[in-house]
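In this supplementary section we document a worked example of the pipeline. Step one takes a protein sequence of length 78 as its only input; no multiple sequence alignment statistics are reported here. Step two produces a three-dimensional model, which step three serialises into structure tokens for compact storage. The input and output of this example are shown verbatim.
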Amino acid sequence: MPLDFDDRGVRLTGNVSIDDLDALAAWTPGDGASVDLAGCRHLHAAVLQQILARRLRVAALPEDPILAAAIEAASTRG
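The serialised model returned by step three reads:
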């Protein structure tokens, strides 16, 4: 499964598709929860929108420079 939840946040790995959106939406993050995208190769736009709408802190960007730049640009807009 591309989503791995723990007490600090959620780690997204591999190809994160629209099928993973419900699990992320159902998750109730604790204070200071973060999203680790270091192992993410593909991120569906709806999943990114969920991360941004919930104002989750991105702890690590993907290794892919294009994906990382897109996420970084989207997350810095207020």
